[in-house]
Amino acid sequence: MDPEQSYQVRSALVWAAVIAAAHFLLGTNTHAVHGLHILLAGLFLVPVLKAAVALELRGGVIAAAAVSVLYLAHILWSWRHSPMANPDQYAMIGVYFVVGISAGNLVKTANFRKWQRDEVIRRSYQASLGVKDK
To answer: What are phi and psi of 35, to 5 degrees?
Structure first.
């Protein structure tokens, strides 16, 4: 893993940990706090996207699974007595996977196109020097 990928993975882990901690520390006493929980649920997309940028599809899926486990633990612990809120919350788990898979595939395609472009440039440079491709 190159340094940029390492940085993105570490950053994703920090984001996930901070968001999960905030989820558990906020409590569920008031309606305004519920709004913050919704915001935090959406912010779990940040580590999913960071991991997808770092590790393409594999990173997006792994991060989606990891934040889903964290978010599910939060739902089961903090909202166990609020069955009306749970369907919306469970749906977010599906969103994490859709975003992780989509972003991972987009990054993979972009990286492949960059490689193709670099390969054309490399071959053109070699041809201008009269170097034969092996």
So the answer is: -60, -40
Calpha distance 89→76 (Å, rounded)? 10
- Burial of 16 from C-beta contacts in 10 A (0-12 / 13-18 / 19+): buried
Q: Do 8 and 50 touch, CB atoms closer than 8 A?
A: yes
- Burial environment of residue 57 by CB neighbours within 10 A (0 to 12, 13 to 18, 19 or more): middle
Whole-model pTM: value is 0.83
Determine the distance from the C-alpha atom of residue 25 to the mean position of all C-alpha atoms in its chain, rounded to a whole number: 23
Q: pLDDT tens for residues 23-66?
A: 888 877 777 788 888 899 999 999 999 999 999 999 999 999 99
The CA-based angle 27-51-5, given to 5 degrees, is 130
Instruction: Determine the Cα–Cα distance for residues 18 and 11; give it in Å rounded to an integer.
Output: 11
